[in-house]
Write a structure and sequence with these properties.
The complex is a heterodimer of chains A (254) and B (262).
Chain A (H helix, E strand, L loop, with lengths): L6 H21 L1 H22 L28 H8 L6 E6 L5 E4 H6 L2 E9 L5 E9 L1 H8 L7 E6 L14 E5 H4 L5 E3 L1 E2 L2 E2 L9 E3 L12 E7 L25
Parallel strand pairs in A: 1-11
Antiparallel strand pairs in A: 1-2, 3-4, 4-8, 5-6, 5-11, 7-10, 8-9
Chain B lengths: L2 E3 L3 H26 L3 E2 L13 E7 L5 E7 L2 E4 L5 E3 L4 E3 L13 H28 L2 H5 L8 H12 L14 H23 L2 H6 L2 H5 L3 H28 L2 H9 L2 E3 L3
The chains are: A alpha+beta (254), B alpha+beta (262).
Chain lengths: 254, 262
């Protein structure tokens, strides 16, 4: 180790030691545990204030953002997906599985034939930017009602076609989950249209989730399967989502 | 030497809890800002949209990076501090020494920010409630005569000459102190308001909150500006403590006992 000679270097070393100490403290297991309790407190407080059905703000056509940045995966690295996409997704299916009475397998045409909801809402990225767009699709609640939930179903898990982690393990595939309060919220839709056109590939074609009272990373893209479960324990990192497994809050209302 | 009772226990307790919380909130907040180092005005704002502030980097040739800060359309070279941090030539808006955690880690910064925010909000509410009850807020409220420009100017001149109150006069607050302390409390309340405006959950509960300040991105910009106001307060506050007898002032805020300067 080189010995710092100047006052400035010594101050720098002192500051670096302090910052390193802070970082060690911040990543200690006890701290991680404590911070996890904060998320529960925030969720409980917000749910109390918001209630089950309060709507996210909806905007006018004039508010729609000129540029809506596509974040995370912007394509699916799969030859069959690409071929299907080029033809307008005739072979794509959405499966509804798990703790349901009747598992469903639906085509894009089936989803288009269901009653639709259109909403102009703001997408808030965890990074800090936001963009407004119009989304259209069937309500998730109606779909789940059709499948019929078993009494022990607690969460809807969205399994996606994209592989944001880039690796080969199960945990590299994108997935997300919401509880039944958000699943049956009137603004929670499976969007297949954006700003009056079919959903583009960078935004998750052919189908993405809109769960409007939470941040952008909850809005799963390229959805293949909705699995009803009673716990996340058996899924990838066990935290209920791709970003949740990497330290982000499962409850993304803040 | 006689020591008088200067600061009440709730004031002292809150001062230190709040000081620690505010420092953690600023450092984690700067880390969160680094994830989108731009400020916008309005309901939405994104890369490619107009910005009031942008901190970025550009290739300066010969493999080096240049730190660039744009404020209201004016561009500044801030290499070494903003945009590009000195030693490793890293492209990052605020340098690692100013953020918590030091390395880029948005997830952990957010968790610490929200944990600390709960302590900060609870502390501020308790402090304001107790200060109303024990009349501390009343001591901080300016009297009408004190607000006369002549009186304020007189206090500014006294401060500029580093002539601080002596004797019994040092046991009460003067107009600049009152304005500074009430002002920073207002900034702290604005931080809570604008912070809540950025939460999509809270937006559903109270859509009027972001609307009142021009939208979510406006709220984010005000959150940042109020932070810079708080940093300015901290710097002036620390300078005043150092200039007016740091040992006596620290004892006053730790034990409550204060020696009246003669």
């Amino acid at each position: 180790m080189t010995v710092p000679t100047s006052r400035r270097a010594l101050l720098g070393l002192g500051a670096a030691t302090l910052v390193a100490g802070c970082d060690r403290l911040a990543t200690a297991p006890a701290t991680v545990d404590l911070l996890g309790h904060t998320e529960k407190l925030t969720k409980a407080a917000q749910r109390l204030l918001i209630g089950r059905t309060a709507l996210a703000a909806e905007f006018d056509r004039a508010d729609i953002s000129r540029n809506f940045r596509a974040n995370g995966s912007i394509n699916v690295d799969d030859i069959d997906y690409q071929a299907d996409a080029a033809r307008g997704f005739p072979d794509w299916r959405l499966e509804v599985t798990g703790l349901v009475k009747t598992p469903l397998s639906l085509s894009l045409a089936d989803l288009r034939a269901l009653p639709q909801r259109a909403q102009i809402t703001r997408h808030d990225c965890v990074e800090g930017w936001s963009a407004i767009a119009e989304w259209q699709g069937p309500q998730l609640g109606a779909l789940l009602a059709r499948a019929g939930l078993l009494p022990n179903a607690r969460y809807a898990v969205f399994h996606c076609a994209d592989n944001l982690g880039g690796g080969l393990s199960e945990g590299d595939r994108y997935y997300e989950s919401i509880d039944l309060i958000d699943a049956f919220h009137p603004q929670t839709i499976l969007a297949h249209r954006m700003n009056g056109a079919p959903l583009g590939i960078p935004h998750g074609a052919p189908l993405r989730l809109r769960v409007e009272r939470q941040l952008g990373y909850k809005q799963a893209k390229y959805i293949l399967r909705i699995d009803l479960v009673d716990s996340f324990a058996a899924l990838a990192g066990g935290k209920g989502g791709f970003w949740e497994d990497r330290g982000y809050e499962w409850y993304a209302g803040i | 030497m006689t020591l008088i009772k200067r600061h009440r226990l709730p004031t002292r307790l809150w001062h230190w809890v709040n000081a620690l919380a505010v420092i953690l909130l600023i450092m984690t907040g700067l880390q969160i800002f680094n994830a989108h180092p731009m400020l916008h005005w309005g309901k939405a704002g994104n890369y490619g949209d107009p910005s009031l502030l942008l901190i970025g980097s550009a290739d300066a040739g010969n493999g080096r990076l240049q730190g660039i800060t744009q404020v209201l359309g004016h561009q500044f070279d801030t290499t070494g501090v903003l945009g590009v941090s000195a030693p490793g030539q890293t492209a990052i808006a605020f340098p690692a020494w100013a953020t918590l955690p030091g390395p880029r880690n948005l997830a952990l910064a957010r968790q610490i920010h929200f944990f600390t925010a709960w302590i900060f909000v609870a502390g501020l509410i308790a402090f304001l409630a107790l200060s109303l009850a024990n009349r501390h807020l009343r001591e901080l409220t300016p009297a009408r005569a004190e607000l006369a420009p002549r009186h304020i100017w007189h206090d500014i001149v006294q401060h500029a000459r580093l002539r601080f109150p002596r004797g019994e006069d040092a046991a009460r607050y003067h107009i600049l102190q009152k304005l500074a302390y009430l002002g920073v409390i207002l900034l702290l309340l604005l931080m809570i308001y604008t912070g809540l405006c950025m939460s999509p959950g809270m937006n559903a509960a109270a859509p009027w909150m972001p609307a009142l300040v021009g939208g979510r991105q406006s709220a984010r910009t005000l959150h940042f500006l109020a932070m810079t106001g708080i940093v300015a307060f901290i710097l002036v506050h620390l300078a005043m403590v150092l200039l007016s007898g740091p040992f006596n002032q620290m004892r006053g805020m730790i034990t409550g006992r204060f020696r009246l300067p003669q």
